[in-house]
Specification:
GO terms for molecular function: nuclease activity. The protein is 44% helix and 25% strand. The protein is of the alpha/beta class. Helix 3 packs across helix 4. The relative contact order is 0.22.
Length: 142
């Protein structure tokens, strides 16, 4: 299966995809949030190009598992996404994926605008990699 990973944010959303076999994840794009409609046009346009079998959306929580305002925003986004597509949507619990992605990119020598341009994509890659490591029977649909 091919998955499209999403690191949703109020200002920017990182997108990554897996290969057709669902073994490796690759960064694809960062979508800037201008309007909700424009955002979904761009996201669903990527779906047409990438042809994923399902979405994987990072679900941020505090280290103790508590939900936050951001968690609720992601859940609301997923509900809007599900109204626009028939593809299944999986949640992948995440803690600090953006911070870890930023560390990875800094270690690779990226700074400033170059880092900011791809950090959300790298976070989406981390979300997908975590998801792919979970046995299928333990994956949770949104």
């Amino acid at each position: 299966m091919k998955f499209l990973g999403i690191d949703y944010g109020q200002r920017r959303t990182g997108i990554a995809v897996t290969d057709a076999g669902g073994r490796m994840a690759f960064p694809r794009r960062t979508i800037a949030m201008t309007t909700r409609d424009a955002f979904f046009v761009e996201l669903l346009g990527m779906v047409e190009v990438e042809c994923p079998d399902a979405f994987v959306v990072g679900l941020p929580r505090l280290p103790g598992g508590e939900e936050t305002l951001t968690t609720r925003q992601v859940r609301n986004f997923v509900e809007r996404l599900k109204r626009r597509t028939t593809l299944p949507v999986y949640f992948m619990p995440e803690e600090l994926s953006s911070f870890e992605a930023e560390d990875d990119l800094r270690d690779a020598g990226l700074r400033g605008r170059r880092l900011e341009a791809v950090v959300d994509q790298q976070a989406a890659v981390r979300i997908l990699e975590s998801f792919l490591a979970v046995p299928e029977e333990r994956r949770s649909l949104a």
